[in-house]
Amino acid sequence: MFSFGKNTFKRTRGGVTPGHFKNTRDCATEQLPIPDTVRIPMAQHIGAPCQPTVKVGDTVAVGTVIGLGEGFMTAPIHASVSGKVKAIEDFIMPTSARCKAVVIAADKLQTPDESVTPPDVHDFESFIAAVKQSGLVGLGGAGFPTWIKLSPKNLDQVDTLIINGAECEPYLTSDYRECLESPDTVIEGVQLVKKYLNLQHCYIGIEKNKPEAIAILKEKVQGLDGIEIKELATRYPQGAEKVIISEITGRRVPMGKLPADVGVVVLNITSTSFIARYLRTGMPLVAKRVTVDGDCVKNPGNWLVPIGTAIADVAEACGGCDKDPAKILLGGPMMGTCVYADSYPVAKNTNGLLFFSADAAGQQRVLACMKCGRCASVCPMGLMPPQIYEANKVKDIAELTRLQVNACMECGCCSYICPSKRLVTQSMREAKATLRAAAAKKQ
Ligand code: SF4
Ligand code: SF4
């Protein structure tokens, strides 16, 4: 049962069971050829965008800092290729965020920046400073700066670390490949986080549809104190932060609160091993493993892609498309963002690139709501989308607040299950925007 302040929603679990479509599970990670140019956006994390720290004509190397932010919620941005800064241009992210983008013409030498050396880490403060310098943001897709996540104000009340290896979105196998290809590095990362945050218990949560990942990590944690593999039911959105906390610890994160408020820090599994690699090498976050799939792609697979590489360049490296994609998704089909041009670049938190034909994308006619209640029955947060939709139509702020629309995590379960093919998640987003606008007006 999720409890949000005064209102209490009686939920057992919610969620849906879409097809897995993990077609690329056996595709080992391949290095994408270095593209001629990369376009690196300055908005790759939650919070204000960074500002470029380089100018046109500057020479950069792999790992050179090219963007820094002034706000608290920020993470530096680094060059993913060596070469020359060709342009600094205005850019609109697929999420509509506006920012600058640094365009680099690659020299294909991949010369590392001279600052790329293992950081001096010996205590909590130096550990957090290193994670900040690494530019790491949540690699599961959220883009939350990891150094902030690892340094909550009430760290002394946190007792549990959850490593999120659920990867419940259909198609995506990026985290799964990390478990198979780098299990020792995953465990090294877990031990580093446990050590510097002084956490006694760690659970690595993985869905049961990944038995090979479960087996290899179970083998690696044998004999290690305080690290346990938790096999999770295969059910979307098992990897959502609030859901995985509830499934593993039974603790419920109230609306507007953070995992640390219930004594938990949650970290994506690829983020965890990235920390271990960064402490060993000092190479910041300049490349991301991306699952490339969909019925249009000739050769689906998992690719290590320099950040800023255009979608078109990734598609070409996979042999191109054998039919015209009608829909390109950054991320999975449940929470991914649809993009309108294949010139968009891969960002730090891009974990999938899906190319679907019109047939596969399955555009269907939207019908009237038949008040069947299925959307409410699958909502992991116990929300009532039809009532929220009606309240938003008349901009009833009090009712939207009472219905707690801000608890919506935009997981997409309601749209998935709707027999009338209504854009239910979209209407939740609109209702949240209504509340945000009302709050801004009040201020
Ligand atoms: S998108 Fe929001 S309303 Fe819909 S199921 Fe997910 S949490 Fe519930
Ligand atoms: S699932 Fe669709 S048709 Fe059923 S109540 Fe929700 S919005 Fe209406």
Automatic annotation (TrEMBL):
Oligomer status and interactors: The complex is composed of six subunits: RnfA, RnfB, RnfC, RnfD, RnfE and RnfG.
A Gene Ontology term for the protein's cellular component: plasma membrane
Function: Part of a membrane-bound complex that couples electron transfer with translocation of ions across the membrane.
Principal location: membrane
Gene: rsxC
Family per record: Belongs to the 4Fe4S bacterial-type ferredoxin family. RnfC subfamily.
Iron keyword on record: yes
Keywords: 4Fe-4S, Cell membrane, Electron transport, Iron, Iron-sulfur, Membrane, Metal-binding, Repeat, Translocase, Transport
Membrane-topology annotation of the record: Peripheral membrane protein
Lineage, highest ranks first: Bacteria, Bacillati, Bacillota, Clostridia, Eubacteriales
Entry-linked Pfam families: Complex1_51K, Fer4_7, RnfC_N, SLBB
EC number: 7.-.-.-
Gene Ontology terms for molecular function: 4 iron, 4 sulfur cluster binding; electron transfer activity; metal ion binding
Compartments where found: Cell membrane
GO biological process: electron transport chain
Cofactor: [4Fe-4S] cluster
Superkingdom of the source species: Bacteria
Residues reported in the UniProt entry to bind [4Fe-4S] cluster 1: 369, 372, 375, 418
Entry protein name: Ion-translocating oxidoreductase complex subunit C
PANTHER family in the cross-refs: ION-TRANSLOCATING OXIDOREDUCTASE COMPLEX SUBUNIT C
Positions of [4Fe-4S] cluster 2 binding: 379, 408, 411, 414
